[in-house]
Amino acid sequence: MMNTCRNTYTPITRRGMLQHTAAGFGWMAFAAMNAKLAQAADEYTSPLTPKSPHFLGKAKRVIFLFMQGGPSHLDTFDWKPELKKNGGKSASSSDNNKDKAGKLLAPQFKFAPQGQSGLPISELFPELSRHADDLCLLNGMHTSNAAHPQATIALHTGSVNFVRPSMGSWVTYGLGSECENLPGFITINPVGLGGAQNYGSSFLPASYQGTRVDLEAGGILDIRNRHLSHERQRSQIDLIQEMNRDLLGKHPGHSELDGVIQSFELAYRMQTSVPSVLNLAAEKASTLDHYGINNDATREFGTQCLMARRLAESGVRFIQVSNRGWDQHRELKSALRKNCAGIDRPIAALLQDLKDRDMLKDTLVLWGGEFGRSPQDQADSGDGRRHNNQGYSMWMAGGGVKGGIRYGATDEMGGTSVLGKLGTHDLHATMLHLLGFDHTKLTYRYAGRDFRLTDVYGDVAREILA
Amino acid sequence: MEFFSRNTVFWRAIFESRIPILGSVAYAALALTAYAADPTSDQLAFFEGKVRPLLAKHCYECHSTEAKKVKGGLLLDSMEGWMAGGDSGEVLEPGKPNASPLMESVRYTNKDLQMPPKYQLAEAEIAVLGAWIEMGAPDPRTGIKVMKASGIDWDKGRKHWSFQAVTKPIVPTVVDTSWTRDDLDRFILTKIESASLTPVPDSDRFALIRRVTLDLTGLPPSVDEVGDFARDPVSDDVALAKVVDRLLQSPAFGERWGRHWLDVARYADSVGKTRNIPFPYAWRYRNYVIDAFNSDMPYNEFIAEQVAGDLMTAADSKDRDEKLVATGFLALGSMDLNERDKEQFQLDRIDDQMDTLCRSTMGLTLGCARCHDHKFDPIAQTDYYAMAGIFASTTTLSGQQSRQGGSKDYHQPSLLARLDSPIPFKTPTGKDANAAKVSLLQDRLKQIQASVKKNEISKSRRAEVRKEVAEIREKLAKLGNTEADSKKGNNKSVVDEILDPNTPLAMAASDGKIADLALRLRGEPDIRGDVVPRAFPVILRQATSPAMPHNGSGRLELAKWLTSRENPLTARVMVNRVWAHLLGRGLVETVDNFGASGAAPTHPELLDHLATRFMDGGWSVKSIVRTIVMSRTYRLSGQNQTINAVADEDNHLFWRANLRRLEVEAIRDSLLAAGGMLKRERPAGAPFDASNVSDLSKGDKKNREGSSADTIGQPIRSVYLPVFRSKLPGMFTVFDFAEPDQVNGHRDVTTVAPQALFMLNNPFVVDVSTRAADRILAQKLPDDKARVRYAYAYALCRYPTETEITRALAFVSAGADRRSNWSALTQALYSAAEFRYIP
To answer: Is there a contact between B355 and A4 if contact means CB atoms under 8 Å apart?
Structure first.
């Protein structure tokens, strides 16, 4: 169903934001009552106040490892023996679909059973394979579009056609943040395709939008005070706050002005908390080594993964790290090997680290790209695959999912998902379920309609729930 | 799957009115043909023997083309019927009876959805339906064109307040006649008095001049202007009138109010979405809008020109150009240039045009009827396609084309309008040998431009590269000339236009192939219903509404209908927008939605009073702005008053001024003014390097992550900064700039930590504060106390209290460096909430 109903309705009453978020459903008002910072109704309540979900979810936070470009599931996590046998043969195409024509390309890497579960994982992930028993391979993924930008936006927001809140915003909207010193949703080095939409809050209040951390640019925009000493800035803020309180005195109960006062305090704390959480100097040399930060090939992603763990530990609700360059139309063998080598060790270290801290049980780790790749050879080069949205793989670990299982399957050649099919909305529904939400009830009233991350779709993959 | 929770209002409406409805679940689009095509003879026998009689007996009464009234927009007498689904989507999923809402409804497992409504089918009959769906729902009843019947209650719909003709209400009498200044005040006061309340006192002159100057120009008053007004010995009425008339004459008025219109026109300098290609000529439309507000162009003409300027008669070529540029309104939409389905692309474009036009001018959410009849308003899906035909008969000249893959050739100068020429610019037809050469040279040139942007060209190579560029340009010029010589002169520009951003091109609209459009079931381009003749929405059709021409798109007629006095929405929507900008909340709170799902007016008579005055006054925006700011209501202070607050906490009665946060443009422009940096002139041409029309979401990091991110330091007014979709400067995002994807008559106001970080740490703010401090220190003032007073007056248009002076003096004497102390003080003043709020 396409829906273009988008008439703007934005109440601007005094407690507008709270009423706004509470419109149309009672659970949130109830959740707010239980909240740690619950205050008299007239006082300002931070939109990031922790909230209770619909039921007790096993996952409390999400770390999403996004692989932009369309990683080849056929060479990584979806073992297809028939494709191995039929490599080089012409793909049968009953429907004259030219996208499906061409010669089949056998998996280019060896698969072997891993862990006690015996999950087949390709040789490209030697380190991650040691955590095979924690992985829940989602082999039946599919998505609506085979173009990078659309599929990327769909994965992040559930919608291709319209600007909608990103999944991280929905999660933060639903759960609030457990950290008073940091934003609830942080995305590290986001990719360009889809841009801010991938972490935008759209019609949800801006407090739920992802705060981007650009490692090259030194973290968060304007996070560093470069012109005043700490003490001097504190006294400057005190002066500002006295003026703000004076103004609030003239407009008693004005929640927005209270919000301004709180925004300065959070900003002040973030100046310390953000650089400190992003500063890896406090980590042991052995930890840096585990994440591969001392190695050129793994430094960038290792750094992101370690930061993700630190942010998770600090109470950030949704953390995304991004990795580019998985679009192997050509040079599949060399490029895919290089990509996997860049992430294998860091991800293994992240999973181990979370386990060591007893955090894997309530941290949902999600890995994957916007789609996968074709069983067919790209132009019979023997070294490339086309885009494929009909079937591909992602995986989850921790956060209440069963480990050591393959859920769903593609057909024999790996091109189309046929079992345990998980579309974008199903993935989102499942993620929300793990966090304790009925995805049909996590709604936000906008333009006269209750919107949800899953639109009017989505089925929870109950078989993977631990 | 839970599907009854959505559209609760809709469901309630359906059930309360006891309309039986079958199935309303939208499933992901299924490859239906894979299941349903070519039933076997066994399947056919089963269908004819069991299924068809069952459907005919129990379902056709409400769900067939023969039905007296089709319920829920669902037809079950053809395969196309159930494939199209009901009002909200699919009813059965071939092969999956348990996932099919039809089965759920006949099984009576959901008490909200039981079919048939009056009795339950026998077990055996339910089993037949289940078996039929299980086998893939084979159905021979194909080839029937489906036209859904409308289930709209027109009589009820017609009664909605905003569809009533604008009236001229009698001005009410009030008790306190001395309070009112303008008739509009009587409409406000009578309600306050009825609630046994009294308005708070007026603002003092300091607050008033700050408010009115920011409201009318988006800039703070100068210290002198504040002083002059505060000391003016004449009455408030006279003194204010002088100020208001001065402000209305300022070019800054159009820059402020033009920007308000640009918000609803979803103005941007790039297309956004997947291939974010810049619009090198959008600025012409932006300037047109600003100039229209400054020259006080009658609002009805302003709207008409944007809809059909290209079709109007023009006084001269300049007039023609302006009217052509106005239609850029239709071409500025955010489109998915990566959309490979041309029809989908066209329908999306039309949807953007209709949604933008109808919501911006009429507060009508017509876009909701693209896929189904409107759920709340009396707008049928046929109304949507009737109006869509007008735009389907229009060629949108956005300068861009959609295509899949790669990053080339989205920008097409041939798809723009040519200014100052009676003949629309056409693409050269027929390829010649030169075209290939031209293309090669252009590619090389683009390559060089890209390298230059990425700083990839070392100093030692620059001379060489410059030489090469000159040679290429020369060659291109020659090729262009050759072409021109052989083809009557109008192809010469093909080359130049690509190279020269100042070429006289504009985004616009023109009439295309005139044709009515077929309705699309569920909005799917491939599922066609009947062709719907072009027309205006039934609910707003008047006896006097012009008929659709056979030789034109109908935009000229659309413009006439839209701006006629009989249209009940156009004037109301605009005066409500003006009111909302000046008073902080519209008389209709949902400024972009005057439909049933929008808010009802708090003061319906006042709305009509203003709308009538607006039309009587020749649709003059300046007059209506002046009327409102000269009213007593506008002058009220923001003071709280306990009795009033208890009775009307949210100030629906307008008994005091609403505290309003400034828009990001006003915050930034105020900062620039405070630093003495603001240049008031309008910059010429495109607000960015228009020769670069590459995808903003691609390329090097700087390009990718926001080419406009570093523009906020430019000392020009914010309205002149580029608006790249998805690439707004950090400050714009942080301070809630209107998302330029769609109509945005009301900006969000968020209060987040990044705003505080911006004020505390952004180099732009620090720079402004230092410059402001330098100015304060350069003034000949007796002592620091006087300097503090000056600093407050300068930043906040008021003098500080004694407490504030003491605090500030303590603050500036605590730090070591005098300049830094004063800079930190002024920065604190700009950071304080008071600076970004209008009390």
So the answer is: yes
